[in-house]
């Protein structure tokens, strides 16, 4: 019997032990399910700040471009934020209107070859705590009702698994952690996960130089000179 890829992904999502595992499982399996050339997952922390972003098939420059030019004119994002339900462009537009939309012309469509787009929500406590995005390039069919049904199921399981992971007790964190700003705390936690400056920048949508300068301030506040000392001082 051939395995159902949607059920396989849902099962793997349910087995994830950490948020990082959850993101990796999604990124490894979701693209093929939806025959997408570009896809992503973004998660927000308890304070509503963007905490993690993973992308496939797109350059790092996409993040800055989308934030600057695409986010505020993205009707799919607006729909998902309003309705907490997945959507693709043909739910909102005729093909002709989509090709004339601001998102297609000036956001991501022409610039990054997003001929077709689909977005879904990860929810928690009645709020959007994450988004998943998919895009197909020119010469491919649009997303359809079955894609929306599959994405709805996947998003439901992502929401449940993320809620369970975030309800688990956290590793003991030293009192000196409170000396850091919320952004510095995010960076310190990613350092503890072994991420490089470039990877931290990509996760938090900030430049490598911003990460570097933030680490200098963290080292100064905590009187340490190396990442290993930082981790040892903050996390036990």
From TrEMBL:
Transmembrane segments: none
Domain HTH luxR-type: 173-236
Alphabetically ordered keywords of this record: DNA-binding, Transcription, Transcription regulation
Any GO BP annotation: regulation of DNA-templated transcription
Record has Nucleus as a keyword: no
Domain of life the protein comes from: Bacteria
A GO molecular-function descriptor: DNA binding
SUPFAM superfamilies from the UniProt entry: C-terminal effector domain of the bipartite response regulators (SSF46894), GAF domain-like (SSF55781)
Database matches in PROSITE patterns: HTH_LUXR_1, HTH_LUXR_2
Pfam families, per database record: GerE (PF00196)
PANTHER family: DNA-BINDING TRANSCRIPTIONAL ACTIVATOR DEVR_DOSR
Stated name of the protein: LuxR C-terminal-related transcriptional regulator
